């Protein structure tokens, strides 16, 4: 889906350091970790383990780790395991930062790498707040949305690392296609926000002891229709982008990325429709969350193709 544009060597004029191939592998690991931790978070929610560790940064009042009897052990294990994944994501982000600095990469790449670390720290704090306020819907929504932003950053980083630092920046889309791609990205943001509202009013609060207290007091079915309408707007904007890319003879790698993105959106749409008509069974939630990361990453890939540094 994404073409590699540079060789496995240090860019000319830079000091020796990790090869571009290694940098990209590290960035790919970071991207997978950023998407994966959102899935583990959804598992916390659908298993009712959100308050398995009722304190933060400790798990329980007197212990950093789960303690027998403080809460059901399986709930403690799931919530604590999700917290531990934060260290995995942090390690991946730190590895990318070190690689970028050792290879002497350009400022843009370093900034994206550091943004990933800052985002992980921010997410840890937001996650702690969501626990301390007993999983209020707005806290959970605020916890999810930055995760999608970090997936976008990691995807953009994966693309930019492949570009030679000294090469000129080239515009590869027609202006109309570029504007439509931006419109599609904006529509995706609205889709994600309305999706958190559907979840916030739905049955999966994240912990059985919380019940519907602190949930969004709006009709879930109505919100689902609004969310679906936003999804259709996003799909239409993406399809129009594909059409303009085809019409303007855009580069093949950009066009193929756009086609793959459309396919991912359709799969996500199918999962969402199944959720609606099946009554949001637990097993569909991690699938929907995982595909959210896939769609966000693919949208970022398409956006990155619009302007690139080519060898």
TrEMBL record:
Pfam families per record: COX15-CtaA
GO molecular function, a single term: metal ion binding
Q: Which UniProt keywords apply?
A: Cell membrane, Disulfide bond, Heme biosynthesis, Iron, Membrane, Metal-binding, Oxidoreductase, Transmembrane, Transmembrane helix
The way this protein sits in the membrane is described as: Multi-pass membrane protein
An example Gene Ontology CC term for this record: membrane
Q: Disulfide bond: present as a keyword of the record?
A: yes
Q: In which pathway does it act?
A: Porphyrin-containing compound metabolism
Cell location:
Membrane
Biological process (GO) annotations? Answer: heme A biosynthetic process
| Location (main, coarse) | membrane
Report whether Transmembrane shows up as a keyword of the record.
Answer: yes
Q: What is this protein called?
A: Cytochrome B
Organism lineage = Bacteria, Bacillati, Actinomycetota, Actinomycetes, Mycobacteriales
